[in-house]
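Next up, sample data:
>
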Amino acid sequence: MTIIQSGKIKGKAEGKAIEEVKLEGATMIGEAGVKMDISERLKLEVKGECFVGKREGLLGMVKVKYAI
């Protein structure tokens, strides 16, 4: 069971308390990407995301599609 009060989350698993998570602060997310049709059959997509603030990190994706 999860109880949400005042931006805080508390819970238990198998009778033991789960470490409290605070939903405070702000995070900004920036995203950029490119899709290219290299040929009629070959497509390429490259995407990146950046997280700054309370949560920080990078996320990237490369997708190649070849149709027969």
